[in-house]
Write a structure and sequence with these properties.
Elements (H helix, E strand, L loop, with lengths): L1 E3 L7 E3 L10 E2 L27 E6 L15 H10 L4 E3 L5 E3 L2 E5 L5 E6 L13 H12 L17 H5 L9 E5 L2 E5 L7 H4 L22 H4 L8 E7 L3 E6 L12 E6 L5 H7 L12 H4 L5 E16 L3 E3 L4 E3 L8 H9 L3 H8 L4 E2 L25 H11 L19 E5 L7 H13 L4 E4 L7 H9 L7 E7 L24 H9 L8 H18 L2 E14 L2 E2 L16 E2 L4
Parallel strand pairs: 4-13, 18-19, 18-20
Antiparallel strand pairs: 1-2, 3-14, 5-6, 7-8, 8-10, 9-10, 11-12, 12-13, 14-20, 14-21, 15-16, 17-21, 22-23
Helix pairs in contact: 8-10, 13-14
């Protein structure tokens, strides 16, 4: 699940949801790498890669420090992991999944997959990667003591449920044939098994003796993490920086850079820091767009994000014992209230006035460029329409009985809604005020919870732990290459932060991955039906599909970005001098 809300204004976890088919683009006149440069050139005068040097990759908030793919939560840690770890599979610019370290053969019944990994791939501590490390990662995630959110990526494996519930001591669907061959049997045929299957190994030897429940706090994860990627971590100052050096035994060849410094900076200073050359690259906030695009030493890349911004209603809470959502908050039970709040929000103005136009309206959880996106004329567009919002509220019984300009609930009681958002861009406060004002104009008393926007970590602690004061919250989900909404939308998904589901929702999600879904037209219709249902029920307000801006110092060459990632093949990045 490519989730994105823990990053400035989003939790971006990257692995399972929707095709948004655009590769990275740059603004006219700019390219990743700049104009030719002095130094080595080819026969056409193009600068050639040169080894050496250290670059600085910036981030805007203190990171958590969960440097293990199976455990990280947001792109605060993800950016470091993209330099140090690597997946068994790769995702191309067109968002198709292809072999990387592992190749595979699929049985005729689509239930058995035989994977072969490349020999000679080394961990940063010198151990050779074997399929035991991949198998170990499955076992960790399937463990009853695993506290992370990626169970969805192993649950399809035969025997995982018995292992997860303590009824079995091994996972029957995992068979090691030899150190480089792993056979995986799944419970049923699913069209997107490879897209959803967990694809990052964990070094089994390195974690020997560490119980799963203690891994999050272990030195193996927080102090001396290792991976198989092109750079290895040498030093961590918690929440401030991560120092990495080139991993000379990287299986694709020695990286060109000597190292990478991943460092936290104040985004309010980002323009000056890029101007000074203190940062070489960062996923920048929108409020810096106008100034960054005018810096002479910066190439400003732009790419559609595989994500959507939303405002979620809290319908209930997560039951840790049963590992399922409980829809025990009736406040938003009437969908006419939810629809009215949708109509009363001027989303187009939010994009124009507070995001520099970097985004477009969206009405469903599937991006507009996906093959599974329903045509706009088949769903409600929820245009800004305060009059319709007022009609719906009146119809639902939310009336201003005491004539103070604010509506009471259908029982005549004061009706106040708490809204939570995050400190982020310079416009965060004014944008929030505009949102609250939209609702106040139709008579809804929506107030900023606690009177202030929250810092990133306290915000997500409150949302994830279902703080009872959290009723309405602003977030962004980052997605992946397949339209299966599993991981975010089912009743047993921890990342289902609104805590909403229904029998119809569960039925459609299952239908989208069953045997019939190997017929793409059938699968498309399932997702059309699902989007119609979500569009009518409004379990959340979809605000916009977003666009990233990525400033890159012109001295940094070889950078390529797309809607999946801004850190692609960093082993090929290199430095040149720019006058």
């Amino acid at each position: 699940m490519n989730n994105k809300i823990r990053s400035g204004a989003m939790l971006m976890l990257l692995w399972v949801l929707v095709l948004s088919a655009c590769s990275g683009t740059v603004t006219p006149g700019n390219s990743a790498g700049g104009d030719g440069a002095p130094g080595m050139t080819d026969s056409k005068g193009n600068a050639q890669p040169e080894a050496g040097g250290i670059i600085t990759y910036g981030y805007s908030s203190p990171f958590q420090g969960l440097f293990e793919p199976a455990f990280y939560e947001g792109d605060d840690d993800l950016y470091a992991l993209e330099f140090t770890t690597e997946s068994m599979f790769a995702v191309k610019d067109d968002l198709t999944t292809v072999p990387n370290i592992a190749t595979w053969q699929e049985s005729e019944d689509h239930r058995t997959f035989t994977f072969k990994i490349k020999p000679g791939v080394r961990w940063h501590n010198g151990d050779e990667l074997t399929v035991e490390d991949w198998k170990f990662a499955f076992e960790v995630i399937a463990s009853p003591d695993y506290s992370g959110p990626r169970y969805y990526s192993v649950e399809m494996i035969q025997g995982v449920e018995a292992y997860h519930t303590g009824k079995a001591t091994t996972i029957s669907g995992l068979t090691v044939i030899d150190p480089y061959t792993l056979r995986i049997t799944v419970t049923s045929a699913r069209v997107n098994t490879i897209d959803n299957l967990w694809s990052y190994p964990m070094n089994k030897k390195y974690y020997t003796g560490i119980p799963v429940k203690e891994m999050e706090d272990s030195s193996q994860m927080r102090v001396n993490p290792i991976g198989i990627g092109p750079f290895m971590i040498t030093s961590i100052k918690p929440g401030e920086y991560v120092e990495m050096k080139r991993f000379d035994d990287y299986y694709k060849g020695k990286p060109l850079l000597d190292g990478v410094l991943y460092k936290v900076f104040d985004d309010k200073q980002i323009v000056e820091l890029f101007k000074q050359g203190a940062i070489d690259m960062e996923d920048a906030p929108r409020d810096a767009y106008e100034q960054l695009k005018n810096l002479e030493n910066v190439n400003l890349l732009q790419t559609p994000e595989l994500s959507y911004e939303y405002i979620g209603f809290k319908f209930g809470s997560w039951d840790n014992k049963e590992e399922i959502i409980k829809m025990d908050n009736p406040k938003f039970a009437d969908k006419r209230l939810r629809q009215a709040m949708y109509y009363s929000l001027d989303r187009a103005s939010l994009i124009k006035n507070y995001s520099y136009g970097l985004g477009k309206l969206v009405e469903t959880p599937i991006p507009g460029t996906s093959w599974a996106k329903i045509p706009d004329d088949q769903i409600n567009q929820y245009p800004y329409n305060p009059a319709k919002a007022k009609d719906l509220l009146n119809e639902a019984g939310y009336i201003d009985t005491n004539k103070d300009g604010l509506r009471e609930d259908p029982k005549g009681n004061p009706f106040v809604i708490n809204y939570d958002g995050m400190i982020g861009s310079a416009m965060a406060e004014s944008r929030t005020e505009a949102i609250l004002q939209n609702w106040r104009e139709v008579g809804l008393d929506v107030r900023l919870n606690g009177g202030n926007l929250k810092e990133l970590n306290p915000f997500y602690d409150a949302v994830e732990n279902d703080d009872p004061t959290v009723e309405l919250f602003n977030g962004v989900w980052g997605l992946a290459s397949d339209p299966d909404p599993s991981g975010l939308w089912r009743k047993d998904d921890p990342w289902n932060y609104p805590r909403w589901s229904s029998e119809r929702n569960e039925e459609l999600i299952r239908a989208g991955v069953n045997m019939k879904s190997f017929d793409k037209e059938y699968r498309k219709q399932v997702y059309y039906d699902w989007q119609k249902y979500i569009n009518e029920e409004v379990p959340m307000i979809f605000v916009a599909e977003r666009e990233s801006i990525i400033p890159v110092n012109k001295r940094l060459q070889g950078v390529h970005v797309n809607s999946m990632s801004t850190i692609i093949e960093p082993a090929k990045w290199w430095i040149k001098d720019v006058d």
